[in-house]
Amino acid sequence: MAQPSSVAVADTLPAETRTALQRLFDPRSIAIVGASTSPTKRGFQAVRALQQAGYAHPVYPVNPKATEILGLEVVPSIDGLPYGVDVALIALPGAAVPDALRHCAAVGIAGAVVLANGFKETGDSGAELDAALARAIAETGIRVIGPNTSGMLNVSTGANLVGLQDVPTGPISVVTQSGNMLLSLVNDNRALKGPGFHAYIGLGNQADVRYDECVAELARDTRTGAVAIHSEGFADGRAFLVAAASAVQDKPVVMLRGGRSDVGRRTALSHTGSIAGSDAVATAVLRQAGVELVDRSDELAVVAGAMATTAPIASGRKVAILSDGGGHATLAADALTARGIELAQISERTQQVLRDLLGGPASVVNPVDVAGATDADPTVFADAVDALMSDPAVGLVLIVGLYGGYHLRFDASLTAAEDATADRLLELTTAHRVPLLVQSCYAGDIVSNHDRLRAGGVPVINSIDHAVRVVAALDRRGRRLATASQRSSLTLPAPAPRAAAGTGILDEPTARALVEDAGVDIGGWTFARTVDEVVTAVTGYGRPCALKIVSPQVIHKSDVGGVKLNVVGAGAAENAQAIIDAVTENVRGAVIDGIVVTPMADHGVELLVGATHDPIFGPVVAFGSGGVMVEALEDVTFRAAPFTEIEAHEMIDETIASRMLDGYRHLSVIDRTALARFLVRVGDIVAAHPEISELDLNPVIASKTGIVPVDVRIVLSDTHSGAHA
Amino acid sequence: MAQPSSVAVADTLPAETRTALQRLFDPRSIAIVGASTSPTKRGFQAVRALQQAGYAHPVYPVNPKATEILGLEVVPSIDGLPYGVDVALIALPGAAVPDALRHCAAVGIAGAVVLANGFKETGDSGAELDAALARAIAETGIRVIGPNTSGMLNVSTGANLVGLQDVPTGPISVVTQSGNMLLSLVNDNRALKGPGFHAYIGLGNQADVRYDECVAELARDTRTGAVAIHSEGFADGRAFLVAAASAVQDKPVVMLRGGRSDVGRRTALSHTGSIAGSDAVATAVLRQAGVELVDRSDELAVVAGAMATTAPIASGRKVAILSDGGGHATLAADALTARGIELAQISERTQQVLRDLLGGPASVVNPVDVAGATDADPTVFADAVDALMSDPAVGLVLIVGLYGGYHLRFDASLTAAEDATADRLLELTTAHRVPLLVQSCYAGDIVSNHDRLRAGGVPVINSIDHAVRVVAALDRRGRRLATASQRSSLTLPAPAPRAAAGTGILDEPTARALVEDAGVDIGGWTFARTVDEVVTAVTGYGRPCALKIVSPQVIHKSDVGGVKLNVVGAGAAENAQAIIDAVTENVRGAVIDGIVVTPMADHGVELLVGATHDPIFGPVVAFGSGGVMVEALEDVTFRAAPFTEIEAHEMIDETIASRMLDGYRHLSVIDRTALARFLVRVGDIVAAHPEISELDLNPVIASKTGIVPVDVRIVLSDTHSGAHA
Questions:
Q1: C-alpha–C-alpha distance, residues B186 and B193, integer Å
Q2: Mean pLDDT on B442-465
């Protein structure tokens, strides 16, 4: 006998003040469009999944033929739904989707989850359907998750539109394009005994709802402790950067990227229709936005789970290792060092406390090794942690080794002592406000004291490498939160009026003037229109100069004799004339506008500085080593523009080039602040001028006299309206 | 009532033909010296552990006071033991150990496991005891494992001298200095459902038995499938290299190194008294010896377990990925690419077979994604694997995604089909002789088809990253086995007679002559003893030359005006005289032997080539990028000398410098074979001349005209008798 659903009693749901996206992610009523009476059909399983998950709000199966599904009264058509249902799960074939969405919008449905595939991920064959879908979304304003998605899941409320059962409730929220990745995460979380999940959004093709909106919405959600993202590419990378940079102020955002290699990218394109750009650019700018990128798929669950429950390391404080095995202590110290994480220098006083506590064989410098002092009485661990957390140098205590397994290794009678120690550790981490992390080779066993720690928000992890990876994330987050006010929001300024008409390559004087007008000191230069002006300029500089032809017909200046280097006053006239003659002879019909005169750069560090308009992330600045090894080294990193001075310093620090700035060999010390400001201004230029598709200052010579670009080259484009515009 | 042990019936055990080490590692009789009646004492637990492990051979508790322990008759003293017991476990305080060893040796005991600590790992305080131990070993010849060890374990026979229970029997043999590492490995193996263990040797302080002997012995042992090593340093690194290079012909050797960072090294020294040298040298030469080095502690169990049961990838063949989820396929392809492992280019024919099998939505290029084609019938997986293994390009099939979990994800009725598929996969991997590896996010669940695969030697792994790490190891092993005959045994030749008397820096002509005599072409050079001879030499070369002073009093030649570059015939006399005058003026009492004249090197790639006598590994050659960025780049790798041409090619390929050899920018193409041979000969020199502590050819200019060292500098030392000598 069908239970009367609310259809029978009201044709409008209560008035709703939430946004469409809030209603979509946390629905208080759900329609299953394409509900089925056949247990093998998704339209049946969807209804069953909601019931099994204990979803407490109205569910409306929609089917023109059936009358009852799993005890629920069936609505014959979308039009028959009460007005204002929050979400429709569309379990219809692709071709029927656009029309269904229009009907959903007409009855006030906020959002739809579209399961069907056969859209853009199939290439040309799905293009027409994809266009129809896009039109339906644009014309109705309904918010759509999918198509080609595994669904959506709100574990906390039981709004299970995925069908996966027994997902534990907890603070991790997941956004991905791949349903299997959710499955992996759930299994990884189980193996890790991690803290469980709040929301899952399977974005599929991202026809409407995209990563940026999800991350923004989930960061605002109090039940989310951390957002875990798996992505194979962004429809709008800049929007994601802006959303992430804001979201990470509230919640950690952890991301695993697929399609980073060429072969992986090809695979990703074939199954999600994603746009995947340069891995190096994406890695750099996502880090800039504060996203915690994991390189390994087995790190996503553990890092997101730990970050969801564990406080970051306070900026300026360092890590203390407490070990009950020298082998583990050494491996943990190695792994931390490999990630550039420093161990805390613990005070003499703390060392004395530990020495009194642990006795002779123990090592009381960090890493602290109890060396058997806890074998008979594991409660000593808590005393040692207390001592370490009392030390102001210590920002996190990492316990490694056999911790919590003494009752298995030595004697079952130690169980109570280990349980009590766990309780005390939770008190200590709260009282000292110093986070605690436990690595134990018994983490995979059923150990009650570990479970107590986990329930209290202290991760207990089996792998030293995973534990250290979590430490790195907590360390980075602490530093980021401390410097939040000094960072870019990554929003782009309103486009400035065009500096120059047309497209193509600007002539060098125009390019130099544009860069200089933006406040970048590029050193002395003169645009000489005659041979006499060249002579005057060279003589004026009083040192060897470079002469370069300016002609709209000449692009590769050196190839046609258009460049002379190390020209001194006495040879200026002769060299200028030689350039003019050579270009006239080599380039038929060349119009010669003049010659750019610049003093030769001092001996210094050759740097690569440039900017491009990245198709995914918008304007980005590149920085790295210049000079002869530039292609062999590939020492280059990126920042999305506009960016700030602290971000420029971090950019510099990432490169091998940075090792040559502080008085390397016979080179002078370079003013890092001046270099950082130079990069910031280059970023400001490309951020303010969306028409600039390329700005090339390569090479830039940094010396004690300044930061001087040898060349300034700007390419304009009319097609600058990238996804971010 | 005490059971009569064989003490009662014989005072000599049967005659033994095995070596002392074989008897030690696989004892057929064991004495527990320091056996105890107190259950909390190790001397009691040791007896109990042997009984619990089902050790079937005689056990002799030794204790002057007790008469019976756990039903065994107690022998009052070591002297009372029957002659020829294989192994004594010495559970006595450190001070009593040397004397006990002498008594053991007197009654024909082959080896002892010494648990006590307080030896060299405690620094000065243990030095005296350490010396006494060394004397007892040297004078008696008894083989000793330890001291400061957790013990030794032969799982196959139940010779459990560690006390750890429930270690599963299998093919992994473990050598480590840290007992806790064994615990970690056992727990990791359980979590991985790995293949289990054969032998464990806890080396402790390595007072006698060392890593090299263990690896050699275990590689010969038919019950060992792979040797897993955790090490914090070698007492004799060269001996280990030689043993490993030989052992890897038979068995994979997988190693995790602790103490790689400075802080980790400090920790290691404090608890095992190890010598830990340069991480970069150790990494390079251990790889050269064929050791599979893992960088993460969570990789040791999984890589050793998989290598113990899985065949390597045949050289020249590549990897095929078979996935049932695009997300996993992409991540696996990314991870393989990041490790430099190529995907197989599968043939048109194979693609057609797969297309027929999997239908439209599937991707039939590698990575192959079944895209739902197996959901209803997982046996299709076996057909797809059959197709892939039939393709001659394919050397390994890696299945990734949900494999084996369909009966959990979709319908329990699929269990039988999945079990049958597992059986068929085992048949296929045997029939095609192509190894199979499975990654599944259900690997941590209880899944019968996975257990069947594991029992058949196919690893089923949860982490994509771990699975790919295993692929890398199997790929490397396949290539190594195919090139085994072209590799160095790493044994050092008998020392050659000294080329020059004394110690210190050789003068440049002598150094050049030594290098040239060894068959290294270092380009033209002349030792001119007069200004006239300089003029003749420069004129003879007919191109600009470098002039360098030769004087025993001058070390830093440039600093005292002892070098002139780009000298042509016309300026030769003047420049030579200028050098002589400058040195005479700047270095009081300088004896001027003459001037070395060399033609200036052509424009080319600047390379770093040098050799040193490493304190751990003996003679090693360094190669990398030279030039201005050398310290910033740290682009340098190493090989233990003597090495072969293929090893030199691999050495070159590891460096960034190698990217500049094939016509980089305006540079000419460098003859890689000539460069490889150059490096081999440099290696031969330092291998044959143990008195050379340093050989520096830096920089070497490689150009189309040859491989020319700009300088040749040799430092001799009397203290060359390193551990390997």
A1: 10
A2: 96
Distance, in Å, from the CA atom of A272 to the CA atom of A207, rounded to the nearest integer, reads 11
B134 shares its domain with B185 = no
The domain that contains A90 carries what CATH number?
A: 3.40.50.720
Token output for B154: 């032969």
Residues B582 and B534 in one domain: yes
- Asked if A317 and A304 sit in the same domain, the reply is no
Rounded CA gap, B590 and B579, in Å? 12
Structural domain boundaries enclosing A339: 312-485
How do residues B147-197 score in pLDDT, each as one tens digit?
999 899 999 999 999 988 889 999 999 999 888 889 899 999 999 999 999
CB spacing of B333 vs A261 below 8 angstroms: yes
Beta strands of B389-487 (E only): which ranges? 394-400, 436-439, 460-461
- A444: nearest CB among B191, B369, B466: B191
Domain count, chain B: 5
Closest residue in A to B262 (Cα–Cα): A334
Best probe of the A interface among B200, B267, B351, by most A CBs < 10 A, is: B267
By Cβ distance, the residue of B122, B187, B326 closest to A178 is: B326
Beta bridge partners of B638: B622
Strands (E), A529-676: 545-550, 563-567, 594-599, 605-614, 618-625, 636-640
Please provide the DSSP assignment of B143-160 as one string: EEE-SS---EEETTTTEE
Is B493 a domain residue? Answer: no
The answer to whether the CB atoms of A334 and B631 lie below 8 A apart is no
Of A255, A273, A308, which residue constitutes the final position of a domain? A308
Residues B537-565: what's their mean pLDDT? 93
CB pairs under 8 A between A and B: 225
**CATH code at position A235:** 3.40.50.261
Q: Is the pLDDT of residue B662 over 60?
A: yes
Cα dihedral A88, A94, A96, A98, rounded to 10, equals 70
Q: How far is CA A237 from CA A145, A251, A254, A616, A623, in A?
A: 18, 19, 16, 5, 20
In a domain, A679, yes or no: yes
Contacts of A188 in chain B (CB under 8 A): 441, 462
DSSP string, B30-97: EEEET--S-TTSHHHHHHHHHHHTT--S-EEEE-SS-SEETTEEPBSSGGGSPBT-SEEEE-S-GGGH
- ipTM of this complex: 0.93
Alpha helix segments (H runs only) across A599-656: 630-633, 645-653
Let me know whether B457 and B369 are in one domain.
yes
Q: Indicate whether B540 belongs to any domain.
A: yes
B281 and B210 assigned to the same domain: yes
- CATH number of the domain that A612 lies in? 3.30.470.20
- The answer to whether residue B525 sits within a structural domain is no
Contact between B326 and A270 using a beta-carbon 8 Å cutoff: yes
Same domain? For A289 and A413 the reply is: no
DSSP state letters, B590-620: ----EEEEEEPPPS-EEEEEEEEEETTTEEE
Instruction: Judge: B444–A190 Cβ closer than 8 Å, yes or no.
Output: yes
Region B648-666: what's the mean pLDDT?
92
Beta strands A504-505; A169-176: pairing state: unpaired
Q: Do A328 and A421 fall into the same domain?
A: yes
Please tell me the pTM assigned to this model. 0.94
Residues with Cβ within 8 Å of residue A362, at least 6 apart in sequence: A354, A355, A368, A369, A370, A371, A373
Residue A362: the pLDDT is 85
Last residue of a domain, one of B111, B145, B179: B145
Helix (H, G, I), strand (E, B) or coil at B564: strand
Give the Cα separation of A119 and A125 in Å (integer): 8
Q: Report the CATH number that the domain containing residue B549 is assigned in CATH.
A: 3.30.1490.20
**Do A567 and A612 sit in the same domain of this protein?**
no
Chain A residue numbers with beta carbons less than 8 Å from the beta carbon of B329 are 267, 271
